[in-house]
Amino acid sequence: QVQLVESGGGLVQAGGSLRLSCAASGLAFASYAMGWFRQAPGKDRELVAQIRRGGGTDYADSVKDRFTISGDTTLKSVYLQMDSLKPDDTAVYYCWTYYYGRDYWGKGTLVTVSS
Predict the structure, then answer these.
(1) Is the pLDDT of residue 71 over 80?
(2) Taking a C-beta distance cutoff of 8 angstroms, is the pair 83, 67 a contact?
(3) Contact indicator for 81, 70 with CB cutoff of 8 Å
(4) DSSP assigned state of 31
(5) Cα dihedral: 59, 8, 52, 92 (round 10)
(6) Which of 19, 50, 100, 114 is deepest in the core (most CB within 10 A)?
(7) Quick one: pLDDT band at residue 58, thresholds 50, 70, 90?
(8) C-alpha neighbours within 13 Å on the C-beta side of residue 24
């Protein structure tokens, strides 16, 4: 059974930094991709960043040049370094992986950025 566990959320002032971590268990092989989505109150869940097997990355325009995604070589752990945080970054952040044709999600970690 695939499980994703996030850590690292919290409260930070605007301009500050946080680092999110996600560890996957139950993966017999490296996943195709891992990443982070977020959902703010009253809004749809959106992709923040993803890293694919082989190292390619994608970012939402709103976080480019501020957030950096990284993962271990087996793609069973993923990290999100968030710098220059803004109040608009406030959301629940969900770890995600695409593994053998299915999407898997963590339970989410809350990031709150105060102005």
Answers:
(1) yes
(2) yes
(3) yes
(4) -
(5) -60
(6) 50
(7) very high
(8) 30
pLDDT at 73 over 80: no
Please check the confidence at residue 70 and state whether its pLDDT lies above 90: yes
Query: Distance between CA 76 and CA 30 in Å, rounded?
Result: 6
Q: Which two tokens stand for residue 39?
A: 């959902």
**Which residues fall within 8 angstroms of residue 106, CB to CB, at 6 or more apart?**
3, 4, 5, 6, 22, 94, 95, 96
> Which residues does 22 contact at the CB level (< 8 Å), separation at least 6?
4, 5, 6, 7, 34, 36, 77, 78, 79, 95, 106
Q: Which residues pair with 7 in a beta bridge?
A: 21
**Residue 22: pLDDT over 90:** yes
For residue 3, what pLDDT is reported?
95
